[in-house]
Every structure is written in C-alpha cells, then in structure tokens.
Amino acid sequence: MEKTIFTKEYKLLISLLKQARKDAKLTQTDVAKAIGEPQSFVSKVESGERKIDVLELWRLSLLYKKPIQHFFPFTKKEFSQKEKTVLKAATLDKNSK
C-alpha cells in the first residue's frame, strides 16, 4: 500500500492547510506560537516532511476557523483500486473475528 504521506489525497490536505493558513493571514511563525510548536514543525508539515495527526489537524482547523471537513473534499469515488482492495480486506478480516 502506498505510504499515506505520498498519496494525492494527503498532498491535497497539505495544500488546503497551507491555503487556510494564508487565508487566515498567518505566518508559519504565527501558527507555531499559537499551537506551541517550533516554526520548523509547521514548515515540515506544509512541505510533507512530517505527517500531521488528527489532533494536530483539529487544532489547526480551529486556528484557521475552518471546519475539519474543509480539509477532506474528496469522495469515495476518488479512492484508488488498491485502496479499495485494502479497505475490503480489512472489512472482511474484521468481520471474520
């Protein structure tokens, strides 16, 4: 399975995060101070060097005044065949227990 950080969906998430920060008229330094992280944290998230976890995403969505759904505009139709296969296998495995 493709690493999440390299998927088109994750790249879109990162792009939307950067745009939301800019729309909020905040610098990476402003964001870092607001969330109690170093500026390098924000830079690494926005460059794709570091994955963001769900709680970090939630904190940023609050700071940027965007609903968390804003960062997930894709639909089920956009899942790749490989992802569909993995999801189906995970569901079958879960149901067999």
TrEMBL record:
Annotated HTH cro/C1-type domain ranges read 17-71
Q: From what superkingdom does this record's organism come?
A: Bacteria
One Pfam match, by short name? HTH_3
Which InterPro entries has this protein been placed in?
Cro/C1-type_HTH, Lambda_DNA-bd_dom_sf
Instruction: Cite the GO molecular-function annotations of the record.
Output: DNA binding
By what name is this protein known? XRE family transcriptional regulator
